[in-house]
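Support reply, case 0932

Customer input (verbatim):
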Amino acid sequence: MQGQFLIIGSASVIALIIVVVILHIVRKAELKYYRDKVKNLEIQRNMVASTPVLVELSKVEPIIKNDKMEEKYNKWQEKFEDIKTRRLTVIDDMLIDLDIYVDKRDYKSCGYRIAKTEIEIYKVREAAEHLLDEIKDITLSEEKYRSIVTKLKTKYRQLNKEYQDHKELYDYMQEAIELQLENIEKRFLDFEKVMEENEYSEVVNICKALDTMIEHMDIIITEMPDILLMANKILPNRMKEVELTNKEMIQEGYVLDYLNIDYNIEESKKNIEKIMDKVKVLNLEGSMFDLKTMLEYYDSLFVDFEKERLSRKVYEETVEDFYKRLEKTNTLVQDVYNQLDDIKNMYDLNDEDLDIIDEVNKTLVVINDDYRKMIAKDESKSSPYSKLNEEVDNLSNRLTIMEDDFDKALKSLGNMYDDEVRAREQLEEIEGFLKTCKTQIRSYKLPIITDNYFVQLNEANEAIGEVIKELSKKPIEIKILNTRVDTARDLVLKLYNTTLDMVKTATLAEKVIVYGNRYRNKYNDVDKELSDAEKMFYKGNYKDALDISIKATSKVDEKIYRKLMGVYEK
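Our regenerated output:
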């Protein structure tokens, strides 16, 4: 029991020691963290204090040559003195307080004061850097602006050389350009003057002015020769070519009013004058673009001229072909339309067929009228060939559609005529079959002709009579006629098959009976059955007669059936 208490006590002591050690480590780490934060703030404070404002101010002293510069210098000194003596002192006091709170381990207060100190250092650093930038703006101005002006002088010399080398290209604009070049040179002299007097605020304006003037001069030197060439030579020559071509084509019969060439030439001349007025004062803004736009317009006119020439050639070929098609269609439609009453009397036309023919005729009248109007435009020279070409294409398309509709109507009429011709031809064939049936019946001396033959014969004769009746009608109803022909053909074929079957069966029965007579004396049963077959034959029951005679004969001649099949097939 004592051993257990001893173990528990030892464990408790060890745990307590561990807790104490951990707390010590944590406090030590926390102390180090805040001391490092304070140390970092001190470093930042020292960096602000070491800002080289005094060094830059010392550079300003030698270049003070006017009251304005001296006033700036004094203000900068006051600002720096305020930073150094007042604001940095405040930060020093804040850092001392932080050291005290850290030593006291009052970390709650430390956190707030550290943040406040950081903000104050940030504000002072911004103020010091802004002050340094203002001073450097002056101390570095000479070097900076001289570098800028040196580059501008280099560019100016290149432009001046370019101008001098090609002076003749600038024609009557030389005086204005040279005056502008003199203005640029005066600006360079102004720059040197203000630099000597350290008036750096003026230096900025002069540098900007030089940059703008040289940039403008670059555009003038580069674009001016092309503008003068375009405005004084290329465009006037192109307008003359257009005027000449326009007159020649009008004399050749072309209609070009829609191009408004005369008006556009006058407007172009006015625009060129306005552009040249701007160019005289060295204002080239938009000039090259406007001149190029005009040149593109006149170039496009030659495309329009060529289009008109091609359209005329195509039109003259197309209109001739169209006229031939139209005349052929007119003749064909007129023929059909003139015979329409006769066709109505001949065939039972439906409303759809008649409507198509009427619509075709109306459409054709409109097409003919539009064609005459188009020809009138051509003869009066009131429409360009490009438009006429479009019109004849449109008329051709409309005529094609109308021809398709007319073909449908003709096809319908043609089918009716074909059906009538086919019906008459089939009537002859049907009557020929009927005649064949009668001939076959008469050619064989049958003892009795069966009733079904006469029934089918009457039906066939009545059907043929109906066909003849339909063909004699005016107008013919094609659908009914086709039905009558089909019915008559079916009935006559049925009669033909009946006749053929009856004649063949009777013939075979007679042949088998005759063939079997040779066995009558030898075989009583054959004799008896053949006698029964004869009775059936004379009663007109040919199929039973054939069956009985084959059965009787087969008793003495097994090959009789095969022989009969050969005869039947022949």
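We compared this against your earlier run and they match. Two observations from our side: DSSP finds 17 helices and no strands in the chain. The chain has four domains: 24-139, 144-285, 311-421, 444-569. Please reopen the case if you see a mismatch on your end.
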